[in-house]
């Protein structure tokens, strides 16, 4: 599906602006903000694939560089959950005010470290968040306080061979008191590079988000 709107935007956050790619299909049912993992950005092929499938299903996407290129070179910045959460919340605020998107329900997709950021932002956001999807998420980094206070419908997707992250997600799942699902995708490792696994992520993400964006 060709996007009705495709635009590189610069979102104000404190003393700087972060870049993001906004793409909206015709009559978008909602918008999904992507929080990438450490060392990744809006050009991530895995997240871009999921974003294309979402847009084909009528859902807009905002792929965000939560760090500047200089910050992304620093290990401490890549794991600075409060900083990354603040940036995602600033992007959420921008979406809620931008004429093209302000009427759309909002959801988050977080991968690896970005999953902890998405969960923290879902708890802290002054704007309603319809749903969250975590892919290979380091959801433990969100902290027990966040996990116990998340009320947003949350889908946890983990590869069947990603053993340490499976355990982390199982522990997080037990702490969460919200509509939730934990799906382990057979044959997949942390990056979902195996044949057919990326498609499974996109399919499960689309089903989950369409359900809750439409309800919102």
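Q: What amino acid sequence fits the structure above?
A:
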């Amino acid at each position: 599906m060709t996007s009705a709107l495709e635009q590189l935007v610069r979102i104000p956050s404190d003393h700087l602006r972060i870049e993001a790619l906004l793409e909206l299909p015709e009559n978008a049912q909602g918008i999904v903000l992507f929080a990438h993992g450490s060392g990744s950005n809006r050009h991530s092929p895995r997240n871009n694939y999921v974003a294309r499938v979402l847009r084909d299903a009528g859902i807009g996407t905002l792929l965000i560089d939560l760090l500047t290129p200089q910050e992304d070179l620093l290990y401490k910045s890549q794991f600075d959950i409060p900083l990354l959460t603040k940036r995602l919340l600033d992007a959420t605020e921008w979406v809620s005010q931008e004429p093209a998107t302000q009427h759309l329900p909002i959801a988050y997709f977080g991968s690896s470290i970005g999953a902890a950021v998405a969960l923290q932002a879902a708890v802290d956001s002054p704007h309603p968040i319809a749903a969250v999807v975590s892919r290979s998420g380091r959801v433990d980094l969100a902290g027990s306080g966040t996990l116990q206070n998340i009320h947003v419908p949350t889908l946890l997707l983990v590869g069947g061979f990603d053993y340490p992250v499976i355990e982390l997600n199982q522990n997080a799942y037990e702490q969460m008191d919200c509509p939730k699902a934990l799906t382990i995708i057979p044959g997949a490792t942390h990056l979902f590079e195996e044949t057919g696994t990326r498609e499974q992520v996109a399919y499960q993400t689309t089903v989950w988000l369409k359900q809750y964006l439409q309800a919102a």
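Q: And what stands out in the fold?
A: Residues 110 and 118 are 6 Å apart (CA to CA).
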